[in-house]
Input
Amino acid sequence: MKPVTYFPIPTQYQFAKNQKLIADKEYRHYFNGDLRLPDDIIPLLGSPMNSFDALQPDPKSLNSLLDPGYHSVENGYCELSDGTAYVTSLVDFPGCTGDMYKWWFWWHSVESARYTLWYPHNHVSARPVNREVLTRPGLLPEQRYIGNTHNIDEYIGPDLVKIAIRFLDPSELGFDTSRFEAAGIVGHACARVSFRFPRLEAVTMIHLARKTERGIEQRSRYWIGHNTKLRIFGASIPLDNIAAKLGIKRRMGGERIAYEQFLHDQIEFNHLSTILPGIYSEFGSREI
Output
């Protein structure tokens, strides 16, 4: 593992703010700025993958993630022909379980200080639209975040982004969830993501946790600029074709954002893999 040594100035300031935010929390000992990347990821940051190897966000292609083995490219980034940013990422979670994974996706959103544990330099705040569901008795872990929307502030590279992550049941994106058990899928976090100002829904995000001999592995895919819609006054206005023609997809996505998202994903999830077993062991049996 190689240490991450470059942090944009705004994220250095955010790290200092997060240190103060978490100083009186009982889980503060998991706040750790020593972030690392696997050795085999470093060369992949040097150039984009061939877009020919990008997965398409249609049901047939998505369900190929449930087949045994791996795709030709599991780690990489590129710009698609219409300007959409594409990212594929594989992260190993040794010693972790599906229960830990599903627990994390609601537990971290209870208060923003918890969210900073995940990426101490880049994460700012997480605010669920329906906070009450986090503490409602008798729910399964995934019922506490699926169907909920998390308003997130975070840095992607040097840029502060304000987004809304609307977590979905994977079937809503076209997955055949009846295949999950046979495919070893023990956790998931799939969503449509909107920029909050304006409310432009433009990202499809997939995280699947698959059981391995060592624990679990997370296979992720992002399409940034995909199926663009303007959500306003309860209506959804399709903008995909015009967004491509006017270059809006390329401005919101493109190769630069694909690169930054790939790097962000690899840093935050590799870091989470190192702290999740300890956090779950200490706090996983609590209601909140």
In short: The chain has eight helices and twelve strands. The chain has one domain: 2-283. Residues 254-283 form the longest helix (30 residues). The chain has a mean pLDDT of 95.
